[in-house]
Every structure is written in structure tokens, then in C-alpha cells.
Amino acid sequence: MPDTKKFIENLSGAGKSIGVLTSGGDAQGMNAAVRAVVRMGIYVGAKVYFIHEGYQGMVDGGDNIKEASWESVSSMLQVGGTVIGSARCKDFRTHEGRLRAALNLVQRGITNLCVIGGDGSLTGANLFREEWSGLLDELVQSGEISEEAAQTNSVLHIVGMVGSIDNDFCGTDMTIGTDSALHRIIEVVDAIMTTAQSHQRTFVLEVMGRHCGYLALVSALACGADWVLIPEMPPKNGWEEQMCHKLSENRADKKRLNIIIVAEGAIDQNNKPITTELIKDLVVRCLGFDTRVTILGHVQRGGTPSAFDRILASRMGVEAVLALLEASPGTPACVVSLCGNQAVRVPLMECVQMTQEVQKAMDEKRFEEAVKLRGRSFENNLNTYKLLSHRKMDAELPNSSFNVAVLNVGAPAAGMNAAVRSAVRVGITEGHTMFAVSDGFEGFYKGQIKEIKWGDVGGWTGQGGSLLGTKRTLPAKHVDKIAEQMRIHNINALLVIGGFEAYLGLLELQAARSKHTELCVPMVMVPATVSNNIPGSDLSIGADTALNAITDTCDRIKQSASGTKRRVFIIETMGGYCGYLATVGGLAAGADAAYIYEEPFDIRDLQSNVEHLTEKMKTSIQRGLVLRNENSSENYTTDFIYQLYSEEGKGVFDCRKNVLGHMQQGGAPSPFDRNFGTKIAAKAMQWISKKLKEFYREGRVFANTEDSACLLGMRRRALVFQPVVELKDETDFVHRIPKEQWWLRLRPLMKILAKYKTSYDVSDSGQLEHIVRLRAKDISAI
């Protein structure tokens, strides 16, 4: 193995003490982060202390600072808020308060702090670190600590994790709690839509976010709201007439309801607040519509954390402990954050300064700059919203005279409809005529193709499954008929939204180009499958919704097991041969083991898992959860594992099994899938428009190059177009999975958090990235 590799076994926490606290406003997922810090800390041999009630507990000391054990963080994963308490602390803002806090830490030998909170909490932590040696000098002089104690504890290391539902912190794509808050908002909006439709009402919703419009913007994208008001983009003068015009236009278009989303910090061009009541009065006065206001308030902070937040917080918690172990006296305080799909470390004060710059830019009415400073994730959301929000009149549309067909292929996946809606509307905005193909390639060769207009896709974002209909049929056998249909309808480009069959289908269509010139058109595929098994993309539309379905069910099962005690559940998940759902679902649900095809296992592994569970039953956590991917092994079936565990666990624990089945494909799409589907399909349509212009020669479109048949996937930090032909070498066609899969790196994490000794390659961690560089890079990312 090359020397550059770095393994967890070589990092030791022996003799170190870590304090973990949550501070400021609570956010769902904070508990998952605390659990990960405690377990990872104990795993590497460090002592970990809970600091209850945030900085207040640090100042007050006493029972507020307690050593944590492995069992003390059990059953925390699925609980919202923060179990160790959080408080806004005035004392810590004073020098005297910080002096008392320093004394309390030194008495317990705590020189490593993991702070989970917003920008205020993290700024406070950094100030504390800068003052540390001065505070110790004062304590030595007053005789409260010895010289020796001051030397032993001479350096304070700080690592931050951003826990805030507002997602207002620069330097990270997502803060812990944001995704869960979006879940709450979307649940409410979906519920309101049914009542609004019944009465033909207009609803004005106020969402949280302080001075940041992220929650309002993303929920507007995810539910197809008619209008959104956010602090970063104050509406232009005369917006009142524009908004009322759009609302009445939508009503005239047979739309029975209107949804307006207002961020709590929304302002106009003159920095004056725009309130929900102001909007309501405006709509009633100008249009006479029956209008209601709903202020979501603290509902958004509550409830159980989403699968995304649990995984994010668990990954960040482990990364925070690694950062503390690797810190040297000169290391600046850092924040562990998420960039695209990767955990990175960024200097804390750089993030804080940029976060403050955003506010300054907004105060000085430099709004475009404020949007850029918010980061690429925010900017891309805003651009997609602008692209989809304004329906142009026919006279304003560029007339491209191109026909673009959209179809779903493979099994249904939640979020497919959001992708279709986005593609259709962006296509129409770009001047194309859009066609919808029913029932995948089967409907294609049968001629089930019809034009689809702007209004036809209204309300599609929140619908699960596939409204166009989808089939697993591949095109190769019917390629003559498909080419004929392409000619009849004069289709100039194809957008295929689907799973592995969509990928195979695109390869087959490309191979048939030599025989059929009708197929020489730009084609692009957007991955949509719960299995997340598409080469060329780290994530697929639908996988997040499926993960949430698995996590919800596992939570209920764990609750049942806790009641009966000494019970182990074996749960079978979908995914074909791809172990993504079992692994990542296992991490989100706090499973003891997850069996997958990609990591072969034998009878000895099963035996050691049974022994591990037998040991666990001697502790206070008397329940077990084991996930198994449906195709993980031909012979070690779910029944076999269930019978083996039942026999081996006799007298110690009893067993139950659950096959989750198709519930993983159903349900309303999660906010992540709605948003991902919307953004990725919009980007795909823009690519199609560009390629149509590029390949238009002498009155026709002719595209026969490899790069005119692409898959658009998310790779680490960016959305990338890759020719499908080039992805062949990366594919295991027999088992329908990519040869290399990023999430396999998360498996050791799941094992560590379940108390297994394992090897964990941490070579990826450890580089401190600067925030400016981080923003300039990968501008095309989500």
C-alpha cells in the first residue's frame, strides 16, 4: 500500500479529553453529531465529556460537564433538537465568564472542544481559543490552577460543526438541520395545497431563516410556488402589479390555488420589511382572492431529523474528531463542512468573515454580490428558480422550431415528475416544442407521443412515482419503430429520465445511429432510481426518498424492539446488487450491521455479528438492527440469516424479520429529490439547447459524435456531462452497478459507530481548504 495512505489505526486519542457542546438555536441532527463525536472519541481512546446547556454549562461547571459513555448516546440518532441542551449565554460574552469556563475545562483536562452551533457560537469559540493562554495566566496568578496544569493544558483546539436550520453559514453547502426543516415546510405545504385547492384559495406562508432566504427559496422550488420573496433578491419596483398579474394568470389557466412563500427576513429595494399581512392585503385589494396566512414558526425546528441530516451529522462528527486528533498548536480553528458530496475542513474565521460580508452587502444594497457570497449552492438554486418562475408570452419566446421528447425509463422513482416538469418548462422557455412519451421505450415504439404544454405539468413536483408512466423495456428490439416515430414527430433531441435501463437504452440508441440517421440527435440521460446504481453519478433522483422511507421504518422497528427488549430485527432493503440503501440506511438508522454484495461475507462474519450482538445484550442497549441488501448473497438469504440468528441467539435474544419491499419506491418525493430533480433536469435542457444549435446544419439536426449522447451526473462536487460510451469501462453490466462506488468509504464509519474495530482510510480528510478557492472552483456544481 502506498505511503500516502493514512489509516485511523495510526491515530490515537489516548490521554486526550474532548468536550462536546451544542449552542445557540437547536437544529435536527445535532444529536447525531453529538453521538458521532462521543463514539468516535471513545473509539480512538480519548475521554469525551458532554457540556450540557451550551456555553452556560461550561461557565457554570459542576454537573453540567459529565463524562460520556458509549451507551449514553444510544437512541439519540432519531431524536430532534439537542438532548444535551442548548442556551443563549450572556455570561460567556464577558471576560469573567470565559475565565470561569477555562477553569472548569482545565480542572477536567479538556483541551479539545467540538462546538455544534451557528456563526455566533463558533465566533465565541474562536475568541475563547485566542484568549486561552491569557486566561490560563490569570488563573495561575490567582492561584486557582498550578503552573504545571497551565503547561499541560497550554493549547486549546477547536473544531466547529454548523448546526442551524437557516443554512446561512458560508463555506458549507448544507448546515445540519436544513434538510429536516425543509421536510417540515414541504409536509405543511403539501397539506395546505389540498385545502387550498378545495376552496380556490391563495395561501401566504412565512418560513424561517432570519436574514437568509435559503429555506424560502428551496421550498418554493420544491413545491412550485407562484411567488417567493427573499432578502437576497428584493423584488424590483412595481413588483406588486407583477405578482398580482401572475396570480390572476395562473387562475385563468384553471389553477385552483396560489402559494406565495415569504422568508421572515424578506425586504424590498429600500430595505423595508415585506410581511405576510402586507402580501395578504395586497392580494385581497387587487384581486379579491380568498387569502389566508400561515406562519410556520417553530414547527420547522422540530420533529425527527431526516436521513440526510443524520448522515451529514454522523460524517461531520467523525471528521471533527479526526481534525482534533490531527491538530497541532499552530492549526487554526476549523469548521468541518460539506462541499458537494465531500467532507472538507475550512478555517472557521474565513467562514465567519464571509458570512458577515453577506449581511454587509445586503445592508449596502449590493444584492447580486450577496447572492454570490452565499455560495454556489444558493446561486444555482436562485438561477433555477428564475428560469422556471416566469412564463413568457408566446411573442417573447425565442422560436427554435426544435422538438424535444422527454420519457421515463425503468422503475418509478420519487422526484421523476419534478424532473419532467422542470425539463418541460425550461424547454418551452428556450423556445422548443416539448413532447411527452408515455410508458418509456415501449410507449415510444407504439407511438404514445404527444405535445406537453406549460400548464400540463402544474403541481407535478410533489407527486410520487411517474406520471408519464415508465417501463423497463429496452429499445434495441424496437429500434426501427422508434426511428420511425422520431421521423413522424420530427424529434430533434431526447431527454431520458430513469435508472439502469435508461443508461442501457441510451447505449443501444447510440449504437443504432449508424443504421438510423433519425437517432443522430443530442440525447441526455438524468439518473433516477432508488437503487443509486448508475455509473457516472454519485447520486440518483429517488434515492433520498427511499432512504427516508427506510429510516422511518427502522425508527419504528427500533421503538418496538426497545419495548420488548432483547430483540434483533433483520431488515431487507431494495437496490438490486447495489448496497447503497442498506449501507447509508444503516448509517442513518444506527444499524449494527449491513450485508451487501460489494463486501463479500461468509459464515465467520455472520458468527462474529451474532457474538457482537450477544455482548451488546449485556449492556443497557438491548436491541439490534441488521440490514441486508436483497441481492447481497445467493445463499445467505434473509430467511437464512434470520434462522441463523434465531438459533445462535437462543436464550440471549429473539429475532424478527421485515422485508421493506416497494414502499421504498413510493411516497411523496423528499425535498432533496424534488430539488435535485428540478435542478439537474433544467441543466440537462440547457445542454440540449446548446447542442441543438451546435449540430444544426443545412436545415436539420445531425449529431453523431460520442459527446452528443451523455449522462448528466453528480461527481463529488460538480454536475458533469459524460459521454455514455466512456462510462462502459466503469460499469459492471452483469450486476448492474458501477465498478467504483464512493459510499463504500462510509461503511467503516457505520461499523465504528456500532462498536466494531475496523480499518478506516482517512487519507481524504485533513486538507484545510480556503473558502475563496472553494467558491471559485466547481462553479457548475449543484
TrEMBL record:
<feature type="binding site" description="in other chain">
    <location>
        <begin position="164"/>
        <end position="166"/>
    </location>
    <ligand>
        <name>substrate</name>
    </ligand>
</feature>
<feature type="binding site" description="in other chain">
    <location>
        <begin position="529"/>
        <end position="533"/>
    </location>
    <ligand>
        <name>beta-D-fructose 2,6-bisphosphate</name>
    </ligand>
</feature>
<dbReference type="GO" id="GO:0006002">
    <property type="term" value="P:fructose 6-phosphate metabolic process"/>
</dbReference>
<dbReference type="InterPro" id="IPR022953">
    <property type="entry name" value="ATP_PFK"/>
</dbReference>
<comment type="subunit">
    <text>Homo- and heterotetramers.</text>
</comment>
<dbReference type="GO" id="GO:0005945">
    <property type="term" value="C:6-phosphofructokinase complex"/>
</dbReference>
<dbReference type="GO" id="GO:0046872">
    <property type="term" value="F:metal ion binding"/>
</dbReference>
<dbReference type="Pfam" id="PF00365">
    <property type="entry name" value="PFK"/>
</dbReference>
<keyword id="KW-0479">Metal-binding</keyword>
<feature type="binding site" description="in other chain">
    <location>
        <position position="472"/>
    </location>
    <ligand>
        <name>beta-D-fructose 2,6-bisphosphate</name>
    </ligand>
</feature>
<dbReference type="GO" id="GO:0070095">
    <property type="term" value="F:fructose-6-phosphate binding"/>
</dbReference>
<dbReference type="GO" id="GO:0048029">
    <property type="term" value="F:monosaccharide binding"/>
</dbReference>
<feature type="binding site" description="in other chain">
    <location>
        <begin position="208"/>
        <end position="210"/>
    </location>
    <ligand>
        <name>substrate</name>
    </ligand>
</feature>
<dbReference type="GO" id="GO:0042802">
    <property type="term" value="F:identical protein binding"/>
</dbReference>
<feature type="binding site" description="in other chain">
    <location>
        <position position="630"/>
    </location>
    <ligand>
        <name>beta-D-fructose 2,6-bisphosphate</name>
    </ligand>
</feature>
<feature type="binding site">
    <location>
        <position position="656"/>
    </location>
    <ligand>
        <name>beta-D-fructose 2,6-bisphosphate</name>
    </ligand>
</feature>
<feature type="active site" description="Proton acceptor">
    <location>
        <position position="166"/>
    </location>
</feature>
<feature type="binding site" description="in other chain">
    <location>
        <position position="736"/>
    </location>
    <ligand>
        <name>beta-D-fructose 2,6-bisphosphate</name>
    </ligand>
</feature>
<dbReference type="InterPro" id="IPR035966">
    <property type="entry name" value="PKF_sf"/>
</dbReference>
<feature type="binding site" description="in other chain">
    <location>
        <begin position="298"/>
        <end position="301"/>
    </location>
    <ligand>
        <name>substrate</name>
    </ligand>
</feature>
<feature type="binding site">
    <location>
        <position position="25"/>
    </location>
    <ligand>
        <name>ATP</name>
    </ligand>
</feature>
<comment type="similarity">
    <text>Belongs to the phosphofructokinase type A (PFKA) family. ATP-dependent PFK group I subfamily. Eukaryotic two domain clade 'E' sub-subfamily.</text>
</comment>
<feature type="region of interest" description="N-terminal catalytic PFK domain 1">
    <location>
        <begin position="1"/>
        <end position="390"/>
    </location>
</feature>
<feature type="binding site">
    <location>
        <position position="119"/>
    </location>
    <ligand>
        <name>Mg(2+)</name>
    </ligand>
</feature>
<protein>
    <recommendedName>
        <fullName>ATP-dependent 6-phosphofructokinase</fullName>
        <ecNumber>2.7.1.11</ecNumber>
    </recommendedName>
</protein>
<dbReference type="InterPro" id="IPR000023">
    <property type="entry name" value="Phosphofructokinase_dom"/>
</dbReference>
<dbReference type="GO" id="GO:0061621">
    <property type="term" value="P:canonical glycolysis"/>
</dbReference>
<keyword id="KW-0324">Glycolysis</keyword>
<keyword id="KW-0418">Kinase</keyword>
<keyword id="KW-0963">Cytoplasm</keyword>
<dbReference type="GO" id="GO:0030388">
    <property type="term" value="P:fructose 1,6-bisphosphate metabolic process"/>
</dbReference>
<dbReference type="InterPro" id="IPR015912">
    <property type="entry name" value="Phosphofructokinase_CS"/>
</dbReference>
<dbReference type="GO" id="GO:0016208">
    <property type="term" value="F:AMP binding"/>
</dbReference>
<dbReference type="InterPro" id="IPR041914">
    <property type="entry name" value="PFK_vert-type"/>
</dbReference>
<dbReference type="GO" id="GO:0003872">
    <property type="term" value="F:6-phosphofructokinase activity"/>
</dbReference>
<dbReference type="GO" id="GO:0016020">
    <property type="term" value="C:membrane"/>
</dbReference>
<comment type="function">
    <text>Catalyzes the phosphorylation of D-fructose 6-phosphate to fructose 1,6-bisphosphate by ATP, the first committing step of glycolysis.</text>
</comment>
<dbReference type="GO" id="GO:0005524">
    <property type="term" value="F:ATP binding"/>
</dbReference>
<feature type="binding site">
    <location>
        <begin position="118"/>
        <end position="121"/>
    </location>
    <ligand>
        <name>ATP</name>
    </ligand>
</feature>
<feature type="binding site">
    <location>
        <position position="292"/>
    </location>
    <ligand>
        <name>substrate</name>
    </ligand>
</feature>
<feature type="domain" description="Phosphofructokinase">
    <location>
        <begin position="403"/>
        <end position="688"/>
    </location>
</feature>
<feature type="binding site" description="in other chain">
    <location>
        <position position="264"/>
    </location>
    <ligand>
        <name>substrate</name>
    </ligand>
</feature>
